[in-house]
Every structure is written in structure tokens, then in C-alpha cells.
Amino acid sequence: MARDEFALIREWTGRSYGLEGNGVSVGLGDDAAVFSVAAGMEVVACCDAMIETVHFLRETMSPCDIGYKAMISNISDIAAMGGIPRYALVTIGVSPGWQADECKRIYEGIDQAAKLYNVRMIGGDTVATPDALHLSITLLGEVESGRALRRSSARAGDLLFLTGPVGSSAAGLDLLLSRRERAVEPRPDWQTLVAQHQRPTAQVEAGRLLLKSGLGRALNDISDGLASEAWEIAEASGCKIVIEAERVPMLEEMRSYAASVGKNPLDWAFYGGEDYQLIGSVPATEAETLAAAFAEHGLPFYLLGTVEAGQPGVWLSEQGSERPLPKAGYNHFKDEAGEDQNG
Ligand SMILES: Nc1ncnc2c1ncn2[C@@H]1O[C@H](COP(=O)(O)OP(=O)(O)O)[C@@H](O)[C@H]1O
Ligand SMILES: Cc1ncc(C[n+]2csc(CCOP(=O)(O)OP(=O)(O)O)c2C)c(N)n1
Ligand SMILES: [Mg+2]
Ligand SMILES: [Mg+2]
Ligand SMILES: [Mg+2]
Is 107 annotated among the ligand-binding residues? Predict the structure, then answer.
């Protein structure tokens, strides 16, 4: 890409360049951005990256999808704190083989998600990388002082809930990756699964409802799989979590695709990841009120288990018996057999 770095930044970030107002006193285009938060609010900040070959391949995601999903994974982490996403800082590492036009489309994806969730890009960094495309976003948001929803807040006597179906993204990825060797045409309704993988949604409205209603306790977003995120809550809160297998919400399209490839759909639900639904806990006495509040806002809400006193861990209740649910999920430094690749 024989082009000038500064001209490229102008081209890719065009709509955000120099934008001020609405809490931003210095926007994109200076050494750093300057913004303020409203009285009574704190800043909530997170950072997630997407790397070619690890988070996407050219054949699984278009440039626009890459930008969009990188924003969603960050917006989802703000949602999981009960916060309001506000400002984004975007770092792109461009490797040989990626054209300026493709990078522009990555920024179009970023822009689409930003518009949908009311986020403003206020800066970033542009660098060359030797091997694969890197996209890293830092997202800044606001949350009512002292009220962020933590992973450590689950208590014995709570019920466990989910804001939507899980396993769809992993099924969509499986569909995309097995495209070449598949003998039969995929069913048209399975396209929903591909869309869940490429263009997930972040549950900001649900996170805000949980915080504002005062009914939500622990909260976490599902990036590495239901099992892994439930384990994080159990360990941070010092509680035993029991998940009822038959209550785990899964799309009908996901079940039918899993059946067609001889896969147990629960494996994708527990260990797939990238669903960006929220998993949390609510005091059992408040669960009905919370379910009604979700229904009133037209938001899905599924109860799927209990939080109990006991050794921190996650158990699966299936056909009347309980067994430990392995603490597995997507892990950057382990292979599929669970071996640590770094020794
Ligand atoms: N390289 C790092 N340097 C500093 N903090 C990190 C790093 N990687 C992760 N963290 C922090 O560790 C925590 C867990 O990160 P992660 O598992 O990626 O969360 P999530 O799955 O919600 O995105 C977060 O507080 C995150 O900010
Ligand atoms: C080509 C390809 N292979 C595998 C995956 C699956 N995958 C990659 S990263 C990941 C987990 C989420 O990423 P991570 O960086 O751990 O996000 P975080 O938990 O920090 O939000 C999953 C399920 C994918 N999306 N694309
Ligand atoms: Mg992360
Ligand atoms: Mg998270
Ligand atoms: Mg994350």
C-alpha cells in the first residue's frame, strides 16, 4: 500500500475528523482527544482486538464485517458493566496484501456500528504490521458512579439468566469454514447463523435495564462461551452455579444445523463463544419482576439455573443428575485438546 499514512487516516476516518461538541472538546485530529462525562457518572473502559487468522479469515468476514464486529465486541463489554458506550479509539495494523480500499471498508463497518449504538470515534493509531491485519478498539463509556454490574456480585439464592440464545455464532463459523467440503446445499434459514457470526448484536439496552431497575446483580458478556463466562461469575463471586441443560436457549436453526452435521448443539452453546449475550444473576425473589420488565421493553429473558452456596464452580443438571461442567471455552493459548501451547 504505497500511500501516505496521514492521507489514509483522513480518508478512512473522514466523517469523524475534527468533530467536536456533545461532550468532546477535542476530537480526532490532534495529539489526543479530550472529553467530559456528566456529573454523577464514572468512565467505564475496555479494549478488545480482532486479529486475522485468530478472529477472522478473509473467507469468513468481509472488511466491513471485521470493523463492525470489532466494535460490537467492545460495546458488549461496556453493556456487561451496565454502562452506556460513548467514545472509541481505533488502532489498525495493516499487513501487506490489505489494500487501502479494504481498510476504508473496515472503517465503514466501524462507522455503521458506531451510528447504531451512538458511539463517537475520537482517535486511534495507524501502523504497518508484517504478518496479519490487526484491529484493536478501546471503548470508553459512562456508568452511574458506584453502580457498575460486576462479575463478583452473584449470591447464593440468586437465579441465573441469559438475554438470548447461545451457540449460533459458533455454528455460523462452522458453516462458513466447512463451505468447501460440504456435499449438500446449506438450508437458507441457516444463513441466520452466519449473520450471528458476522454481525452480532450487543445487549446495551438489557445491560442498562439491569442497572437502572436495580434488580441485576452479577453480569458478564459471552465472548468465550457460556461455560467459561459462568465459571468467571462462579469464581469471582465464590459461588456454585447450576445450569439446567434443557433451559439453555438455542435457535431452532442452530439445533437443525447441529443435527445435520452430527454435533451436540450444547457443545456450541457452552464452548463456542462470540454470542455477545449477557449472562447474569438476579435475587430469586426479584426474578419475576425482572422478567416482566424485560418483556415490557420487548427484550428476551431466559432463566437457566441457580446460584448456590458451595465450592466455586459450574455444574450441569441434566435428566435429574448433576455433573461438573468443564471450565473450557475459547482460550488463545490452548489448542482444542486443552493443551497449553506456550508450555
Ligand atoms: N494485555 C493486557 N493488559 C492489561 N489488561 C488486560 C490485558 N488483557 C486483558 N486485560 C484485562 O483483563 C480482564 C479480562 O480480560 P478479557 O478476558 O479479555 O475480558 P473479556 O472476555 O470481557 O473481553 C479485563 O479487565 C481486561 O481489561
Ligand atoms: C477463523 C476463526 N477461527 C476461530 C474463531 C473463534 N474465535 C476466535 S476468538 C474467539 C473468542 C473471543 O475472542 P477474545 O479475543 O477471547 O475476546 P474477549 O473474550 O477478550 O472478548 C472465538 C470464539 C473465529 N471467530 N474465526
Ligand atoms: Mg477482552
Ligand atoms: Mg467481557
Ligand atoms: Mg470482550
Answer: yes
pLDDT, tens digit (0-9, with 9 covering 90-100), for 219-229: 999 999 999 99
CB atoms within 10 A of CB 227: 24
Average pLDDT over residues 149-173: 98
CATH 1.20.1290.10 fits 5-144, yes or no: no
189-242 residue pLDDT tens: 999 999 999 999 999 999 999 999 999 999 999 999 999 999 999 999 999 999
Q: Where are the domains of the chain?
A: 5-144, 151-324
CA–CA distance, 197 with 200 (Å, rounded to integer): 6
Q: Residues lining ligand 3 (ion), CB within 5 A?
A: 48
Task: Tell me if 5-144 shares its fold with 151-324.
Answer: no
pLDDT at 335 over 70: no
CA–centroid distance, residue 2 to ligand 2 (Å): 31
Handedness of CA 276, 195, 128, 53 (dihedral sign): positive
Cβ–ligand 1 contact at 48 (below 6 Å): yes
The answer to whether 48 is a known ligand-binding residue is: yes
Q: Which atom of ligand 1 lies at the shortest distance from residue 80's CA?
A: 22
Mean pLDDT, residues 170-198:
90
Question: How many angstroms separate the Cα of 24 from the Cα of each of 20, 32, 38, 101, 200?
Answer: 5, 11, 12, 29, 28
Q: How far apart are the first and last CA of the chain?
A: 37
Cβ contact 199:68 at 8 Å: yes
Q: How far is CA 290 from the centre of its chain?
A: 22
Summarize pLDDT for 285-313 with one digit per residue, the tens. Answer: 999 999 999 999 999 999 999 999 999 99
pLDDT given for residue 120 in this prediction: 95
* Closest listed ligand to the CA of 79: 4
Position 79 pLDDT exceeds 90: yes
Q: Is there an atom of ligand 2 within 6 Å of 330 CB?
A: yes
- pTM reported for the whole predicted model: 0.95
Question: 123 - beta bridge partners?
Answer: 89
| Nearest protein Cα to ligand 1, atom 4 | 47
**Number of other CB atoms surrounding residue 102 within 10 Å:** 17
Q: Output the CATH code of domain 151-324.
A: 3.90.650.10
